[in-house]
Amino acid sequence: MERRFRQWRGGLVALSTPVLGVIILVYLMVIFYLGWLGYKKTKETEDYMVAGRKIHPYILALSYGATFISTSAIIGFGGAAGALGMGLLWLAFMNIFVGIFIAFVIFGSKTRRMGLNLNAVTFPELLGRRYQSRFIQGFSGGLIGIFMPLYAGIVLIGGARFLESTLSIDYDVAVLILTVIVAAYVITGGLIAVMYTDALQGTLMFIGMAILLVFTYIKLGGVTAAHSALTSMSDLVPDSLAAGGHLGWTAMPAFGSPIWWTLVSTLVLGVGIGVIAQPQLAVRFMTVKNDTALNRAVLVGGPFILMMTGVAFTVGALSNAYFYNTLGKISVVVAGGNTDLIMPEFINSAMPETFVILFMLTLLAAAMSTLSSQFHTMGTSIGHDFYREFLKKGELGQTINITRAAIAFTILASVILAYILPISIIARATAIFFGLCAAAFLPMYTGALFWKRMTKEGAIASLLVGTFSSLFWLAFVHSSEAVPLGISKAIFGVDTILTGTWTVVDPILVATPLAFVVAIVVSLMTKPTSKEHLDTCFKE
Amino acid sequence: MLGIDDPQIWLAYILCFVSAVGCIIYGAFKWNDDSDNGEVD
User: Fold this and answer.
1) Within-domain flag for A241
2) Would the CB atoms of B23 and A89 count as touching at under 8 Å?
3) Within an 8 Å CB–CB cutoff, is residue A231 touching chain B?
4) What is the ipTM of this complex?
5) Is A301 near chain B, with CB under 8 Å?
6) The domain that contains A94 carries what CATH number?
């Protein structure tokens, strides 16, 4: 990531900095106006935590989508498609079908009702109250508070590199500016400000990506011509990738090969399913007043995600055809082996200069929209769920002020992490966080909504097993994290304690099923939840 | 299909559009369906 934006700066020298500066200034002024609106509308705890439960469906859809899609989804995963090919479109399909349709229609409506019935204002609180356990709320909040700064760190680095390269300012100053701007509207305006600004940022992202898709197909002579050109390049796959199972950019990798496992387990299943249990997304279902709003949001959300990941993956793969036509090289070679540079290189060389400016704004919007929600979720997790509800047993008033202080504290942690952690770990942060959330939260979240027989003990067992088996797999087996972390090396003297295919199987595929099994077995062995409490939870 | 030989890929490509259009149809169909709404006052 770091190198990416440094190198990218070289390609942007031709851009007019004053014009871009003015555009960014206008953009920031609108953001501040929306942040101020959020501040004005925030009067009670519910306003600050769940936007008063009366957000407009359009704002919900764009806020959910813009939070979901960060800069790394466009640049990082688009670049991965440049290397691995259009097989990533399965992830785009999962993002739309699971990330929007299943999430809103199946999980959203139940989450909203239960959140209202139990008067929950955060995702951990929903789980804690459903299972009548402060431990669940506190542990979940703590887990989010500890690991989300890692995920926020990567988004922060990406956004700051963007400001550094486009405005030619010092990187440290860029981190400071970005943090202060986002923190200002998140701390003062709460979730209303976050969602209003998200909606604006989502709209900018939609426009930017739509234009990118159209220009790319035009450059390559139309949809079928572009795909055919890419299909005919299959013999150009580098030997190193071909050995891993790569069969061309318009073909799935060989079944069971290392690249196939990476594509299917980490990318398609890990990120595709992990999204359901993301606290910063799930809390959004509690921000609307009725199911109609959720249904209407599906109409906007589906096409929005298609325009984000669908476009990023298609364009990433097609960049090979463009670079082969113009330079006689494939994208990975043009990008000097760093897949994070494929999208920037392509946009800089293939797109008109005015579009490059617009796309800069698209990326800044993508970073800020994800960052703002992360800040808000980290703050509420530490301030409300962990500190107030778990440590202080809910006795303190002043939820908003405690949360504000916690937001400031977790932001500081993100900034420090962004500085001290090695880039190889930071680059894996999104996948780590998604996988951890899926293993820790998905079984008890699913059980909370759909299985009345699931008990407090079953939930606690699945939370602990999911969390620690996921962390164990990350540290000792999955080579992408285990090798840079070095914990396995330090303790056992080997990079990973298992070898072969296991080292490319994502933690989510091991830890999540395990946590599900534990949840079911332990629940069936323990005393059912009282009927009165279930009636309260599931009241229609 | 569409210049892509591998059915596993063009299926994914088509499914992306089908699911997005499905979301539009679902949202439009349910636009004014306010039965069983569990509304907040």
Assistant:
1) no
2) no
3) yes
4) 0.92
5) yes
6) 1.20.1730.10
